[in-house]
Amino acid sequence: MTAPSSSFALQPVIVGAGPAGVRAAQALVAHGLRPVVIDEASRAGGQIYRRPPANLAERSANVLYGFEARRADAVHTAFDTLRERIDYRPDSLVWNAQGGRLDVLHGPTRSTSSVPYSQLIVATGATDRVLPVPGWTLPGVYTLGGAQVAPKSQGCAIGQRVVFMGTGPLLYLVAYQYAKAGAKVAAVLDTSRLADQLAATPAMLRQPAVFAKGVYYVAWLRAHGVALHGGVRPLRVLGDAAEGRVAGVAWHDGREERTLACDAVGFGYALRSETQLADLLGCRFEFAPLHRAHLPVRDAAGRSSVRGVYLAGDGAGIMGADAAEWAGERAALALLADGGVAVDTARAAMLERKLHKLGAFRQGLERAFPVPHDWAAHAPDELVVCRCENITAGTLRQTVAEQGADEMNRLKALSRVGMGRCQGRMCGVAAAEILAHATGQPVQQVGRLRGQAPIKPIPIHLATPAPSTEGAGA
Q1: How does pLDDT run across 264-282, given as a tens digit for each residue?
Q2: Torsion of CA 231, 179, 20, 444, to 10 degrees
Q3: What is the C-alpha separation between 16 and 38, in angstroms, rounded?
Q4: Can you tell me the distance from the alpha carbon of 104 to that of 93, in angstroms, rounded to the nearest whole number?
Q5: What is the pLDDT of residue 472?
Q6: In the predicted model, what is the mean pLDDT of residues 82-108?
Q7: What's the Cα-to-Cα distance from 52 to each of 37, 42, 47, 128, 145, rounded to whole Å?
């Protein structure tokens, strides 16, 4: 091991303690560094390996993570081993970045701090891709990720009779987790078709173990009486006027409209990267057709277009938990090498090969579970797209027709879409699809909402700022 060079006068900083962040920290510690790890969650693990609160009754990893129990345990154990060798800051939101410093809010105390960095690994993860339907603002409607948090973090379900709809591997995983835990899953409504999945099978067989798990989830759900419907178009979430919450769902199966009673809905269309911090850091973005999104550019090692800023995990492109671990370690090795520290180049090359090989499998997944490109054509004018500002699809179309908006930030300025609390994190994808359809442009041509601070809502009244960490030694 080579001692760190003088370029590490400040501690490297990692944002995010999911699989990518944990493996990045592990690699840095192994080379004699003490990184700062800033995590919005109260315990490390990320969304995929989310750990319950410490005060909640302990449940086994097998119950919480199923087939992923061993990998979850490995990530948790790795982090617990590192705990005394890193500067770990849980419950802490990085809400702004400028001038080589991160603005951080500690949630429980509402205190703020400014964290300087010269080397930064961004491992901010992903969130749900939302394409709304009428009724999605009713109490009892959750994203798939939100539905998954409930059993993992709180040991409860979002309802007594739940429908899951949308598409993507997470759709079946969450349905399986709910049914396995004893919750009543009324149905799984998938917008993708069996033909899509059959066509993608050769590519997905490049990762046979992952493919087998997906097949198992579907087979288990069928064997346990869960109704699975493919090739559907969700129409609306039905509400109970007396209760003011979810009462059912309606969808079209290709032949006729169908309805089903339920008291909760989990929905989503795979995942989208959380890129706001990379944007505030000045990283260059390009449209990635595979992900149908504008993503920060990075090289095979995780280097961004900004010197000293490295990108890892799903925050730079959805590749899954395994890839996040590899990318986190690879980004850390790149950071070390750029600072003059000798690293295992063979290990670095092996990680890059594994990440490259996974690309073909990801192509298969996108073929198997395509985002419905005709969603905007079917979205009614009265559909609320931006719930923060109560902006409808009709308002967006009217803005295009009457004011000539043809780019996302222009649409935002004229309609207020994306100006609310979520800063476009939930509505941005849907608004881009509406804009592309209304203008007749490919979605890549309408651009993306520029990142704005605060990345996520922060309280107006804050406690006295915590001392700056400037000058902290390595």
Answers
A1: 999 999 999 999 999 999 9
A2: 20
A3: 6
A4: 5
A5: 43
A6: 96
A7: 19, 9, 11, 20, 15
Q: Supply the pLDDT for residue 377.
A: 97
> Tens digit of pLDDT for each residue in 226-271?
999 999 999 999 998 788 899 999 999 999 999 999 999 999 999 9
Alpha helices in 38-193 (DSSP H): 61-65, 69-82, 144-149, 169-180
Residue 56 has pLDDT above 80, yes or no: no
* Sole residue written with tokens 């919005």: 40
One-letter amino acid at 333 equals L
Q: In angstroms, how far is CA 209 from the centroid of its own chain?
A: 23
> What are the C-alpha distances in Å from 440 to residues 133, 385, 397, 400, 432?
22, 19, 12, 11, 12
Structural tokens at position 137: 């603002």
The three-state secondary structure class of 9 is coil
Q: Which residues, 6+ apart, have CB-to-CB distance to 373 below 8 Å?
A: none
> And the tokens for 224?
């346990």
Distances (CA, A) of 443 to 135, 208, 293, 294, 432: 25, 33, 9, 10, 7
Q: Give the separation between CA 159 and CA 142, rounded to whole angstroms.
A: 10
| CB burial of residue 345 (10 Å; 0-12, 13-18, 19+) | exposed
The CB density around residue 349, as the number of other CB atoms within 10 Å, is 13
- Assigned token pair, 339: 């600072």
* Residue type present at position 377: A
Beta strands in 303-422 (DSSP E): 309-311, 384-386, 391-392
Residue 339, classed as helix, strand or coil, is coil
Instruction: Name the token pair of 92.
Output: 């802490």
pLDDT more than 90, % of the chain: 84
Q: Where are the beta strands (DSSP E) in 263-378?
A: 264-269, 271-273, 285-288, 293-296, 309-311
